[in-house]
Design a protein that fits this description.
The structure is a homodimer. With about 350 residues, chain A is α/β, with parallel strands linked by helices. In chain A, about 50% of the residues lie in helices and about 10% in strands. Chain A contains 16 helices and 9 strands. The interface between A and B is medium-sized, with 35 and 35 residues.
Amino acid sequence: MVNDTFLKACRREPAGHTPVWLMRQAGRYMKEYMAIRSKHSFLEMCRTPELACEVTLQPVEKLGVDAAIIFADILLPLEGMGIKLEFAKNEGPVIHNPVRTPADIDAIRIIEPGEDVPYLLEAIRMVRRELEGKLPLIGFSGAPFTLASYIIEGGGSRNYVHAKGLMYREPAQWHRLMEKITEIIVRYLNAQIEAGAQAVQIFDSWAGCLGPEDYREFVLPYTRKVIESVRGDVPVINFSTNTGTYLDLVREAGGDVVGVDWRVRLDRAWEVVGDDMAIQGNLDPVTLFGPASEIEKRAGRILEMAANRPGHIFNLGHGVIVGTPVDNVKRLVDFVHEQSSRGG
Amino acid sequence: MVNDTFLKACRREPAGHTPVWLMRQAGRYMKEYMAIRSKHSFLEMCRTPELACEVTLQPVEKLGVDAAIIFADILLPLEGMGIKLEFAKNEGPVIHNPVRTPADIDAIRIIEPGEDVPYLLEAIRMVRRELEGKLPLIGFSGAPFTLASYIIEGGGSRNYVHAKGLMYREPAQWHRLMEKITEIIVRYLNAQIEAGAQAVQIFDSWAGCLGPEDYREFVLPYTRKVIESVRGDVPVINFSTNTGTYLDLVREAGGDVVGVDWRVRLDRAWEVVGDDMAIQGNLDPVTLFGPASEIEKRAGRILEMAANRPGHIFNLGHGVIVGTPVDNVKRLVDFVHEQSSRGG
């Protein structure tokens, strides 16, 4: 591989520079993306391998990041699970038959990725061919909690009353649901790996609505099971947000890399996560709306906190925000490369 | 005062039981509240002392909490500041002239509480008369950051792009805005105290969108200034959410009591906050949708973590959620009283 800095960092091996990629690096902040999006719905883009491939490669060409991540959505497995998903205009995903009862849990189908998400696997194969070994490709999935709360709440949520309600009122049903979802995610990730994904990231974007004890009891065992079931020696990034007060538990859930958001100092996070795991993060995405001097100052601080230690993957603490100036993103990538290869 | 457990706990003095009150204890989950709300708009209720007084007292009578908190909204000072606020139906507050430019900051008027929020001060006097010294009354305000980000964003926000943008692009303007807001909050709180509030809480509900370094540089000095400027020996509760990864800085901002959310274990929070401050919290509000056994188990765990140490005020980690069964809230209050007076 021409640029294997990302995979080296996942394994905490020294690399020529600190690798950098950005969550949602393929997205609406980029005019090349919008040119395609203006002609196709979001789901059409996900389900058409040529389009997904093209969009996946846009930030690689434009920004010079050190890894590609397949263009997809964490909700893609839902259709195969028997859950009716719609991307309502400007409203985000809406689920018309949310999972609330034991019968709803019974009805969830364990997906067969080859039949249920063939377009995703084809897109992965296509991106791998296009990349010609120049850069690694990351596959991904929602984590069990985030996926479970999505299908229970039936969409976005403020307080997660239904998801937590199931935990608190019917813990046995909660566990049964999480077991099924875990099996689905394991199949989903391993199919991506078989198709060519060289690392995978698990997004637990919503875990931070939980307190530490609920995370430990109702979530951690399933995230761990997913991570342990990932095939071969493909690195796993365990990413979550708003979990900085119990990174010790996130660490316990496992992974080669722990992804952290900007609410925690990178050096403190690393103290908790320990020397045997890599760390990914953690610039506040809003920084990219600031002036260049501020972006460099803040990115520089993060690099200093990582102290050039092998095993740091530079990223934002969450996805690139719509409206982010592309030039600023490019500048960030260049800055991380220059600054870290200077041996600084 | 007949029941001074709350004020004692604020001062870390032993009390007969652990005092408990709940953020948003007067609210839409209660049918007595809805009976009034069905006839008046939210702002009308805030601006009519008789109604605000009645609603303030509802949870005192119904739940047996150990403190009343004046029925009001953190956005009440905005009108006097010259900011046009509207409570749009089902959409929460909308500001039609958000603060974005230096001229907008110039235009902000420093309020005169006696002229700008006379109804609030009158409501406080009225509640004090009605309470006849049986229970203490808490006044409150938004913290400088939460108020600033509200008026910059012009309402609720997902990423706080405008607020952080001002910080990052024009720090001098940010500081100028925060100085004005700080002055306004100090006047607002001291007027409440003069009218009869016996403790005050500062709500920094949105501070948790910031990383620790931004909190330290752009927020902490102003929160501290507010707390230091509160008149007399009235206890101040410094409440914020999602700041559990930098409670050391929240502590530095000061207050007699630090309010914490459920993302942090109470015992760990207290380790960081230290022995010279009281702690308020921290049950996940969604717990109140669970069965009684679960509510008691979880509340019991928090009491155990507080270990009957003087200076614990029991509360939720955030406000009571609409739809919460009132009986469960009542049961929680009773449980905290019984359990803690048992010397357990």
